[in-house]
Recover the amino acids of this structure.
């Protein structure tokens, strides 16, 4: 086995590089074709997800294989080799097996333990089989990876260590609450109708959202997803009619992709995961939607010439722009007033500072920059206003004597109060809860990162999820999964090494059968008077002798070959028994053809992952007690005697 994997993932490369290195379906096909056409590789498979691009190959030379696979990845991803190389990782032989098994178990995922990767591995294998780029090694490897992944999820609590990327993203919005409590009665817009978008729609539907609107470039796929949601969770509304179809529960409808801008003004949550190469939602589109939302959601002001606006409420989604103004007013009400009396003899422009949140005429910001004469005028005005209104409790002059003396000295020297002093603490405006929550699960990104800076908008994307997941607690079950992976890697390696020597053992037994057949034929010529019973007894006796002589060596050589470093036993066996290399190769080709056909059949039927250990029919064939005397191969010994 000379398995090699070259790739990059969220662990090795920044999101900006992963976005540019994304492979389309056509690019993956061309990459596989070019890889198997290259000299070092005989098999190839591509595992491409939102967070990783990995090229697996069976190569005959390590260094040449690394160079060729790296060049092909750079060529088909569109990222220059010099720029891509620092982010690439390389795994070879057992380390490559260990890497794929870890990936299948969710140990290498952005969210530890997520199970979506199993479907992606299955798709990668199906693509390689369809293009005939996966041979015996990669068929065995990927099918066993699927079994190991399922074993990890069924035998451990790795699912508790993390959730799907969708759930993890929604939890960022929930702010410590459950997703169900946060999402209840919200309006949801899902952009895209692929597997990730469908998972997001189903997750939110289960959480109890009021409505899910699905937008997709192919309207039929959007309608199909809306129909599935209705069948499972509630009722469907037709885009051309406001009548609800079905019983009570979730409302779902499909819209064309060009209706997204309008739907943004109604949505509380937007989830986007498309295969677009450019932005689906720009910051300008989101800003326009927020502006449209404020016009329809904020109450009208009397005398502004507009009719009364209906204020729309959402199930706990936070305050809108109108409530932000109310919150600001509430904060100002709690602050010290900006004036302590009339404007008479006041050195401040009260009309300017009156509406400034957090401003106090008693604070340092009010007197900063004043000349000495203005400072005295301000003090007299404050004293007069305080005595007239009973405002503000005066500081103890004795306690502040030092500060007052220093301030007076500075004013006398500079002719004004110094501007650069420690500012007075100012009450901060509370940031309103987001009105619009955007979850971008696409790679490259669908939503402009600048949208996060818009008031009332919260954006969570792949990059921010990577930062959050780095601090996520690891479950104790992760250690158990790692032990499972280690055991499975050892078992797979032993099986592959044993399989490597099997064609040689089969060729040896074939040669022995040919020798027996030749000697029985020679005996018939020398003793033509033997009857069938006698001839059968002699033949059976000779076969038993040969079988007993070969049994212990062949069993032992398979055991030795299964151990690390046991690859040389096949060569030793061929040398000791003078086996024809072409005969061994013919057995290998026959086994690969049979196993490849079986593997494609398993995948086409959906793959049965109930087994957790690697098995192969070829081992059963090696343990036959009887030999097939119908072989047409002629041994080297018989050719010499002839």
């Amino acid at each position: 086995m000379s398995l090699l994997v070259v790739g990059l993932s969220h662990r090795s490369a920044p999101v900006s590089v992963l976005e540019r290195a994304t492979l389309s379906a056509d690019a993956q096909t061309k990459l596989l074709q070019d890889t198997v056409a290259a000299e070092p590789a005989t098999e190839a498979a591509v595992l491409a997800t939102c967070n990783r691009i990995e090229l697996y190959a069976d190569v005959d030379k390590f260094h040449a294989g690394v160079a060729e696979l790296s060049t092909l990845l750079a060529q088909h991803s569109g990222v220059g080799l010099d720029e891509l190389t620092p982010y690439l990782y390389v795994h070879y032989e057992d380390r490559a097996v260990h890497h794929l098994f870890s990936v299948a178990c969710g140990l290498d995922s952005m969210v530890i333990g997520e199970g979506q990767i199993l479907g992606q591995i299955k798709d990668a294998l199906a693509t390689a089989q369809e293009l005939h780029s996966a041979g015996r090694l990669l068929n065995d490897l990927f099918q066993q990876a699927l079994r190991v992944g399922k074993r990890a999820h069924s035998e451990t609590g790795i699912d508790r260590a993390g959730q799907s990327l969708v759930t993890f993203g929604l939890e960022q919005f929930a702010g410590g609450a459950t997703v169900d409590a946060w999402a209840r009665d919200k309006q949801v817009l899902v952009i895209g109708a692929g597997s990730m978008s469908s998972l997001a729609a189903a997750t939110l539907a289960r959480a109890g959202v009021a409505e899910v609107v699905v937008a997709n470039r192919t309207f039929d796929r959007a309608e199909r997803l809306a129909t599935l949601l209705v069948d499972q969770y509630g009722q469907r509304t037709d885009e051309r009619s406001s009548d609800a179809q079905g019983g009570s529960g979730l409302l779902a409808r499909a819209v064309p992709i060009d209706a997204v801008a309008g739907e943004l003004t109604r949505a509380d949550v937007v989830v986007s995961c498309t295969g677009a190469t450019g932005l689906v939602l720009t910051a300008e589109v989101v800003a326009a939607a927020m502006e449209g939302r404020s016009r329809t959601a904020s109450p009208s002001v009397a005398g502004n010439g507009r009719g009364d606006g209906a204020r729309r409420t959402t199930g706990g989604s936070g305050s809108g722009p109108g409530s932000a103004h109310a919150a600001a007013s509430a904060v100002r009400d709690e602050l010290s007033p900006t004036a302590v009396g009339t404007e008479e003899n006041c050195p401040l422009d009260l009309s300017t500072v009156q509406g400034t949140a957090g401003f106090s005429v008693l604070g340092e910001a009010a007197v900063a920059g004043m000349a000495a004469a203005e400072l005295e005028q301000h003090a007299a005005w404050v004293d007069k206003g305080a005595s007239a209104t009973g405002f503000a409790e005066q500081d103890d002059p004795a306690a502040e004597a030092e500060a007052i003396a220093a301030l007076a000295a500075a004013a006398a020297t500079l002719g004004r109060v110094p501007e650069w002093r420690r500012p007075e603490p100012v009450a901060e405006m509370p940031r309103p809860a987001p009105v619009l929550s955007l979850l971008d699960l696409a790679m490259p990104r669908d939503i402009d990162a600048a949208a996060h800076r818009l008031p009332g908008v919260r954006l969570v994307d792949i990059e921010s999820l990577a930062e959050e997941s780095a601090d996520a607690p690891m479950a104790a079950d992760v250690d158990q999964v790692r032990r499972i992976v280690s055991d499975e890697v050892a078992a797979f390696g032993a099986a592959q090494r044993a399989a490597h020597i099997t064609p040689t053992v089969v060729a040896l037994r074939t040669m022995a059968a040919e020798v027996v057949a030749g000697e029985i034929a020679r005996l018939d010529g020398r003793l033509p008077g033997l009857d069938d019973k006698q001839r059968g007894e002699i033949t059976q006796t000779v076969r038993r002798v040969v079988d007993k002589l070969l049994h212990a060596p062949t069993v032992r050589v398979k055991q030795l070959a299964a151990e690390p470093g046991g690859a040389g036993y096949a060569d030793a066996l061929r040398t000791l028994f003078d086996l024809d290399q072409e005969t061994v190769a013919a057995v290998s080709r026959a086994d690969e053809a049979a196993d490849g056909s079986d593997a494609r059949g398993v995948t086409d039927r959906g793959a049965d992952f109930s087994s957790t250990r690697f098995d192969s029919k070829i081992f059963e064939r090696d343990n036959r007690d009887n030999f097939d005397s119908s072989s047409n191969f002629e041994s080297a010994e018989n050719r010499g005697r002839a």
Summary: The first strand starts at residue 3 and ends at 9. The longest helix spans residues 477-526. Residues 239-247, 298-341, 386-393, 599-642 have pLDDT under 50 and may be disordered. DSSP finds 26 helices and twelve strands in the chain.
